[in-house]
Amino acid sequence: MGKRKSAAKPPPKKRMDKLDTVFSCPFCNHGSCVECRIDMKNLIGEASCRICQENFSTTVNALTEPIDIYSEWIDECERVNTVEGDDDA
């Protein structure tokens, strides 16, 4: 009589890399000086630069991460710059 085949072990789960929580400032270009804070009680996310004191606030939800707040800040800066650039033309 033969031996029963054992079930193969499932492959180990791959770990997700941690996302950044500090970023470079779009105004003063210092690296790692923008810190993002999320206040889930008031549903507000804030990104602020420790060097030039610039800040940005936005509404958040349960899935919001610090990178989302920073990305919204960058998008808003680009939107404002394109609107100002269109006025000059």
From TrEMBL:
Molecular functions (GO terms): RNA polymerase II complex binding; zinc ion binding
Keyword set includes Zinc: yes
Function field: Transcription elongation factor implicated in the maintenance of proper chromatin structure in actively transcribed regions.
Family: Belongs to the ELOF1 family.
PANTHER family assigned: TRANSCRIPTION ELONGATION FACTOR 1 HOMOLOG
Organism, as annotated: Miscanthus lutarioriparius
Subcellular location: Nucleus
Protein name: Transcription elongation factor 1 homolog
Pfam families to which the protein is assigned, alphabetical: Zn_ribbon_Elf1 (PF05129)
Listed Gene3D superfamilies: 2.20.25.190
